[in-house]
Design goal:
By secondary structure, the chain is mainly alpha-helical. About 65% of the residues lie in helices and about 0% in strands. Residues about 5-10, about 15-25, about 115-125 and about 135-145 have low confidence and may be disordered.
């Protein structure tokens, strides 16, 4: 079994100076690494994992936020990739296939645990966070303590709102707004066409805002 990267519990590996998202000229080497790894070259496999480990940990951490098993699930991803690498047909980019395995492993974990991923305020785009804040602004007279309390209250509310979205909706928002994947990349990872991704992202954002508005309307007046 090849050595697979490990990290401190739930945290991405420390920055060792190696970039994970390589520029085009360096990424062009990846198909050759994949070919060598499929032929049994352990060093090539380890190089592939080193290139992508930070993104894998980030995706797992984003979907399983707040859980203790982030590192275990990430390690399971590396093991599954090692075991099934020879079946990768190279019709898509290796990174796309790897991130698809990562997402599916997270969903399998959540279904087994019968738990829903926790997503925090950081998992929304800056624009969405500003929209939420604008709908319930903090009064200037409240001072920094009131502001901190309100932000904590907002994060708690967002946790509960996002828990009402489906696993797919939460994953899409995390991939797009946090990890910066394009809709084309998300489509490949989730096996959906681009238009479907756009529509579902639009609906997920809209549903989130409606849930927030409803929650505000239900709150007692102060």
């Amino acid at each position: 079994m090849a050595h697979v990267p490990k990290s401190e519990a739930g945290k991405p590996p420390p920055d060792d100076g190696k970039e994970i998202r390589k520029p085009a000229a360096v990424s062009a080497q990846e198909p050759e690494l994949v070919r060598r790894a499929q032929a049994g070259d352990i060093n090539a496999f380890e190089e592939l994992m080193i290139r992508h480990q930070r993104r894998v940990f980030a995706i797992v951490g984003g979907i399983l936020r707040g859980r203790e098993d982030v590192e275990d699930v990430a390690q399971q991803v590396f093991i599954k990739v090692f075991q099934s690498l020879r079946r990768f047909d190279r019709r898509s980019a290796f990174s796309t296939w790897l991130y698809k395995v990562t997402v599916n492993e997270c969903w399998d974990y959540l279904r087994k645990k019968r738990a829903r991923p926790l997503v925090y305020e950081a998992d929304l785009s800056e624009e969405q966070a500003q929209q939420l804040e604008a709908r319930h602004p903090v009064g200037a007279e409240g001072g920094p303590t009131a502001s901190a309390d309100r932000r904590a209250e907002l994060r708690d509310m967002l946790d509960r709102l996002l828990a009402e979205l489906t696993e797919e909706e939460q994953t899409m928002l995390m991939l797009k707004e946090v990890e910066g994947f394009s809709v084309e990349e998300i489509g490949e990872i989730l096996t959906l066409n681009v238009n479907t991704v756009k529509v579902r992202l639009f609906r997920a954002r809209g549903r989130l805002m409606r849930l927030y508005q409803r929650r505000l309307a239900e709150r007692p007046k102060r």
